[in-house]
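Exam revision sheet. Question 4 asks you to relate a sequence to its structure. Input first:
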Amino acid sequence: MSKPIILCVDDEKDILQSLRTQIMEAFGNAYGYEVAEDADEALEVIDELIEDEMQIIIIVSDWLMPGMKGDEFLIKVHQQFPNVVKIMLTGQADEVAIQRAKEQANLHCCLFKPWSEPELIEILKSGLAQLDS
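Answer key, structure tokens:
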């Protein structure tokens, strides 16, 4: 059985690297880790993972990205995969976008940049606990 996947989406490579490093240090080999630099690439990654019968359990997505914004992306994902835990990461999301993601994508949490590692890990743990319930 393959490991469940945590997917991080952000158009800044440094942020993707930080997220991946912090999450891997916290959870080790328990999960698979994937990254994408925008919503379109993330949708392609999701399609490939589903094709390979891999389960995506958490998506951490930036809000302000070229092309599709994070709230639109998470709503689109939610329509197909309602059980995936969705976390929006943002330095500048407006309240309307956050509220829309909560209502239409069952947003688990909004994490503001710059985030603290303990806060990130705590949010991921609460998302994982939600999956188990």
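Marking note for examiners. The chain has a mean pLDDT of 95.
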